[in-house]
Amino acid sequence: MKRCGCFLINALMFCASPYAAAQRERVAPPLGEAFFGVEGSAGDGALKTVPVEDEERVSARRAREEVPLMRPDERRVVDAQSLAFNKALEPILADAAKSTVRVWARVKGENRVLAYGTVVGDGTNVLTKWSEIEGHADGLVIKGDLGEGAKAEVTGVFTDEDLALLSVTPEAAASEDFVPARFHKADLPLGRFLAAARPDSKPGAFGVVGVLERNLRETDKAQLGIMADFQYSGEGVRIANVQPEFGAAEAGLRSGDVILSVDERVISGLQELKNALSVKSPGDKVTLRIETAGKERSVEVRLSNRPVLGQFAGGRLNAMERMGGEPNRIRDGFSRVVQSDMKIKSNQIGGPVVDLEGRVVGVTMARADRTRTYIMASKAVMDLLKTEFDSVADAKAKTVLRQTELAEQRRAMMPTPRRAQGKPRDIERTRRHLRDVERLRNRADRELDTLGAR
Which of 272, 305, 338 delimits the end of a domain? Predict the structure, then answer.
């Protein structure tokens, strides 16, 4: 077992996760995760729990693996330890599980879990992820672990945080035995262990805090209003172009200027410029030392809000983000979140998160990629619930407006097509090229005819 020892330690944290089965076979959810199907007549709303994978299916799937990660004896050890690890978390999650619900709807003729939710307020309200339920807001059902399900309505939307507040009748909340979450206002320091609850008291995912609470909203950050020249390799940051209506343009900065310092902080490159601006706020004034055509001067610039930017990731980056599971469609722009490495499924977002003492310390906000899950801490959740929310109509209008702004920015940021080198408008040259192409085509035809004759 010498070979097994270190490997098992490294493998346990991955394999213990209820997400590990879906990692090995992406089309299948974790072992034991429930799918809700209608039992009885189509309209009675009664639900039953149906196991997704039984032991035989798991064994058969593992036997089909072309390159096993472990020998059978190693796998048995890891599986046993994984089961024990998850079992040990169940008492910690027991109370939070009573405040965890699944939000589902009929999608293409079948019942589908859209998201998780956290019971809040007096027990008749549920906080969940808006973008995951938005398309089915008129036919939502929420269900705890043992209830039959209750129809829910969207009371309001916290559009900027992509959260929605659902409501059920007091009678439905009582029959489903919903228990409001008791949020614990605790700091979430680096390395703090966190676990996401499921309605059945099993862990949906677990991980540790990797990045402290921060603001992901680009529009709340300060900018000069320039585009940097990425081809420049000298000291400072050379300006490729200046965006109109922002502070840099008002201060008279031009393409080709080089930013050497910000408030006497020497700028060695683009990352240093970003760091210098990260501690500033929109509306602040900074003094830049600028080099223009070999001459230096000082310029005062008022910083502006960044424009609304969406995700411009290329195909390769998008594919990397989906390694290990599908991320949520809305996975950035939150104002107060901590970052964790928990590997939670995108349709389990919205439920409570607990610490090792079983205290509810936040709710899951988004699965961003294979290494990042965002969580809103309890204090931020409680502050949010005290603010005004949007109506469904207003929330949808805001979404359409944001999509329009993003489309306009994408068009504005598209590079201007360059004219080909040479003289493309030289008519004689174009005619000569066409004659050359014609001769080549005729030669090819003659050779094909010769081959055909043989």
Answer: 305
Total domains in the chain come to: 2
- Choose one of 281, 305, 329: the last residue of a domain: 305
Question: Model-level pTM?
Answer: 0.69
Pair of tokens at residue 67 = 């390159």
Q: What tokens were used for 64?
A: 């089909």
For 350, the token pair is: 């919205």
User: Domain limits at 442?
Assistant: 426-454
Q: Are 346 and 352 in contact (CB under 8 A)?
A: no
Alpha carbon distance 103, 166 (integer Å): 10
CATH code of 233's domain? 2.30.42.10
Does some domain include residue 392? no
Is there a contact between 277 and 223 (Cβ–Cβ < 8 Å)? yes
pLDDT, one tens digit for every residue, the chain (454 residues):
434 444 333 444 444 554 444 333 333 333 333 333 332 333 333 343 333 334 444 444 444 444 456 788 888 888 899 889 999 999 999 999 999 999 999 998 899 999 999 999 999 999 999 999 999 999 999 999 988 899 999 999 999 999 999 999 999 999 999 999 999 998 999 999 999 999 999 999 999 999 999 988 877 788 898 989 988 988 999 999 898 888 999 999 999 999 999 999 999 998 899 889 988 888 999 999 999 999 999 999 999 887 655 444 444 445 555 555 689 999 988 999 999 999 999 999 999 999 999 999 999 999 998 889 999 999 999 999 999 999 999 999 988 887 787 777 666 555 555 555 555 556 777 777 777 777 777 677 666 665 555 5
